[in-house]
Amino acid sequence: MNSSFDGTETRAICITIPLHVNSDGAWTNLTSPLTNFSLPLLEMQMIAVFITTQVCHLVLSSFGQITKFVSQMLAGILLGPHVLGGIKGYGEFLFPLGSQELLATIALLGYTLFVFLSGVKMDLGIIFRTGRKAMYTGALALLTPLILGMGTQKLLGDFWGLSGNEKLQLSIAAAIHSMTPFPVIAWLLSDLKIQNSELGRLGLSAALVSDLFSAFLISCCNLAKVALVHTTRRALIDLGIILCYLIVVVFVARPAMYWVVRQTPEGRPVKDLYIYIIVLAVLGAGLLSNWFDQLIVWGPFCFGLAVPSGPPLGSALIHKFDCMVSGVLVPIYVTTIMMNVNLSDINLHSNLAMAHAIVIVVTIISKFSSCLVPPLYSKMPINDALTLALIMSSKGVVDLASYSFAITLKNVNVEMFSLSLVTVAVTASIVPILIRRLYDPSRKYAGYQRRNLIDQKRNAELRILACIYRPDHIPAIIDLLENVSPTRENPLAVYVLHLIELIGRATPVFVSHQMQKKTLSNRSYSQDVILAFSHFQRNNHEAIAMNVFTAISPSKLMHEDICTLALDKLTSLIILPFHRKYSVDGSIELEDNTLRTLNCSVIDRAPCSVAILVNRSHPRRPSTPAVAASYSIAMVFLGGNDDREALTLAKRMVKDSSISLTVVRLIPEGEEGITDWDKMLDAEAIKDLRYRTAGGGDNVVYIEEVVHDGPETATKLRELIDDYDLFIVGRRYNVESPLTSGLDEWSEFPELGVVGDMLASTDFNGWCSVLVVQQQMTM
C-alpha cells in the first residue's frame, strides 16, 4: 500500500502483535528488510531528514542569506509526493503509513519542548521596559491585519456566497497569518546576527508584545469554539481550569523556581533532580492542556515563562535540551509537516481558494504597512523602518505549527493548508534577503567626527570605555586608569561595560547601573564590578565620573554593545583586556579565544581609538636606583598614526610626578630626515619631548636608537623588557618598515601588531604589562 502525503485518504493499517521493534540483523533474515522493524525504520527516517536538510542548507546558503528553517521546509518538499515521493515504492519503503504516527509523535514532542524552551528564553520583564514605539508596533502588527483580514473575508464571503464553515476557515487563516510569534522573530534575528542591535532589540520587544496578545486571543478563540461545538458550561469549566493553572504557575511554580536558584551555589550547576522534576512538569502541562481543550503547547509555554531566564536554571535547561531540540527534533517536525503539502491541491479557480489568496495578500500588506507607522512617526530612517516592518512580517516554525494544528482539528481544508504553507515558505525565504539588503548594523559606527586622543582639546575631559569580561580584569583596568592621572584639571569620564554571555534567554539585556544608588538590588548584575569601581571613584573624588553598564548578549555580537556604547557616550578610547591570562611564573594560565574574537571585531568597527591591555600578573617590579619613580612606563615609538596616538596617552600619564616615562624612538639605519607629511607629524609629536629631556630634572626621558632591521629591533626590546612596569606601543597594522622586517612571519596575534606581539610573547617572559593602541580608523 502506497503512503499518502495529502492526508485526505482513510486507510486500514494492520499491526503485528507483538510489535517488531528491534531487528535481528540484516544477515539473519535476508528476506525481511530493516524497514519492517520500527526502530531501524525510525533511525533511517531521522537520518534521511537530517541529510536532506543539511544538503539543502549547504546548497541554499551559497545563494545568499537563506535560513535553516527554509532549508528544512525545502527538505520536506523534496521528501514529499512531488519529488522523491513520486518514485514507485519510495513511500512504502521509507515512510510507510504505519510508521508516520510514531514519527509525527516524536516530532510533536520536539516542538512542544521547543515552545517550552522559547518560554524559558523570554524575559517578561522587558514588557515593563518596552517603550511606546515597540508597544504600538507590536499591537498594530497583530490588530491591523486581523481586523482587515476579518473584514475582507466578510466581504468576500458575502460577495461569493461562501458557507459558514468556509467563512470560519478564512477567519482562522487570517488570524494565523496575523500573528507575530516571538520565537520566530528571535530565531530570525539570531540567524541574521542582529538581535542585540538597536533594531533587533526593538523587534524583539514588539514581537513579545504581539505574541502575548496572540496567545490571549487564541485561548479565547478555543474557548469560544468549545462553547459552540459542545456547551457553554464546558467552556466555563475550561476557563476555570485555565485560571487555576495560571495561578499555580505564578504563585507556586515560579517561587519554587527561585527557591531552586537560591539553593544553587554561585558557579555550581543545578542539581539534576530539579531538572527531572521540571521536565515531568512540562509533560504534565501538555497533558493538562489537552484536558481543558487548549493546544498541547499552551501549558508548556506558560510553564516556561515561569522559569527565571538566564543562569543558573534557565541556562541549564537551554544547555541540556536546546541542541537536541533545535538541531534534531524541530527539523524533523518542520520536514514532516512539509511532506504533507501537495502542490496539486492548490486550485485558485474556486471561490474559496481565491478568497483565501486575497485574505493572505491583505494581511501581509496590512501587517507590513502598520509596522511602518510607529517608526516613521518617531523619525526613524526609512531603511530602518522598512527593516523593522520586514522583521515583524516574517514567518517561521510557529506559523507552520499553527496551520498543522488547524488541519488536524479540521479548521482548514487541505487546499488552504497547502497554499498557506507555500506562503510561509516564500515569506521566510524573501524576508532575510531583503533585511540584509536594507540593514547593516555596522554602518552607524562610520562617524565623521574625530574621536581620538590626538585631536582632543588640552585639559578636556577624557572619555574612556573600559570593558570587563572576567573578574581578574577589574584590578588591571583600575590600575591602568589610575595611571592615566585623573585630576580636577584633567578629569576622566569612565564608562565600565561588564560583558556577560547570553545563555538561557532569547532577549539581550543592557543594564545601566546608577552609581549614586547606595544599595544593590537582589538581582543586580555585576556586583563585584560596581563595588570595585565605585570604590575607585571615591578615591578620586571630583577627578573621575563613573558609570557602570552590563551587557548580556551572544558572545559573537558583544562588539555591537561595545561600539554602540562608545558611539553614544562619545568616548575617545576603548580599553579591551587581552584574551590571555598569565600566571606568576609567566606561563599561560588561560586562553580565551572567544574574547580574542571579540577584540578583533571591536578593532575592525570601533568608532574611536582602541587599546588592548596585556596584563602580567607578576608582582610590581621593585624600584631600582636607575628608576626612582614608583611606576615606570616605556613608549616604543616607530612612527605613524598609532604610535602618535600611543605617545599622546603616555604624555597624559606622565603628568603624575610619581610616574616616569621613557620614550624610545627607533630610527631605521640610513633614513634621510623628513621626507613626507607622516614623518613631519612624527617630528612634531616628539618635539616637546626633546626640549623636556634637554632641560633635565623631569620624569621624562627621550632616547633615539638607530637599528638596522627587525631582528635588531627585537634584540633592543629584549634589553628593555625588565626595566619597566608598562610598555605602550602602537599597533601599526599592515605598516611595512625596515624596523620590523622579518618579524611579521613570527607574529602570532595581528591585533597586537608586530611590536606588541613580541612584548606579549612568552618568549620575552618580562615583568611588564603591554598596552597596544590603535588610532580611530572608521571615518
Termini separation: 69 Å
Topology-level CATH name of the largest domain = Na+/H+ antiporter like fold
Just name the CATH architecture of the largest domain.
Up-down Bundle
CATH class of the largest domain: Mainly Alpha
Give me the Rg, rounded: 32 Å
Count up the helices: 25
Strand order in the largest sheet: 3-4-2-1-5-8-13-12-9-10-11
**How many structural domains does the protein architecture include?**
2
How much of the sequence is in beta strands? 5-15%
The low-pLDDT segments are: 1-7, 515-523, 619-629
How is the biggest beta sheet arranged?
11 strands, mixed
Coarse structural class: alpha/beta
Say how many strands there are: 13
Question: Can you give the mean pLDDT?
Answer: 82
Please bin the fraction of helical residues: 40-55%
